Amino acid sequence: MKLTADMSAVVTGGASGLGLATARRLIERGVSVVIADLSEERGNAALDELGPKARFVKADVCDTDQMNAVYDAAEALAPLRALVHCAGLGGPLRVVEKDGSPGSLEKYESIVRINLIGTFNALRLGAARMAKNEMIDGERGAAC
Question: Which of 119, 41, 132 is nearest to 84 (CA)?
Fold first, then answer.
């Protein structure tokens, strides 16, 4: 997909790590970017670095209303043509703790929810928006 200045992109998990690096690269190529992240502190810090082509929307990728607000913000900048989904959670998780007690089901559920449900939610909502775009060079947009 050809990246141009007349498009917008959403980067989930965009306030740090791989997401922030992705947002930087998109902006270097002229794309307007909305970063979605749970951390307001990191999101605002990212805006200071990324400059005027970036916006931050605090959002949980599992929450449909919050993600729709992210896509609304992107479409207010330019047609949404790209989603790069970098939001995710990991970390050590034990089936049995050192003291012999069962591992945390709540922590496991949180990881699965963000990494699976959140991924599907972000992709389905973004792709539905892009599906309405006019075709350019045989494409409406890309989500990954």
Answer: 119
Look at residue 99 and tell me if it is in a domain: no
Domain that holds residue 17: 8-89+120-143
DSSP per-residue letters across 26-46? HHHTT-EEEEEES-HHHHHHH
Tell me the mean pLDDT per 10 residues along the chain, length 144: 92 97 97 97 96 97 98 97 95 94 95 96 97 89 86
Measured CA to CA in angstroms, residue 89 lies from 20, 48, 66 at distances of 15, 25, 18
> Is residue 58 assigned to a domain?
yes
CATH of the domain at 48: 3.40.50.720
User: Are 120 and 87 within 8 A, CB to CB?
Assistant: no
Whether 96 is covered by a domain: the verdict is no
Q: What is the DSSP letter of 140?
A: S
Report how far apart the first and last C-alpha atoms of the chain are (Å, whole number).
Answer: 12
Q: How far apart are CA 25 and CA 78, in angstroms?
A: 17
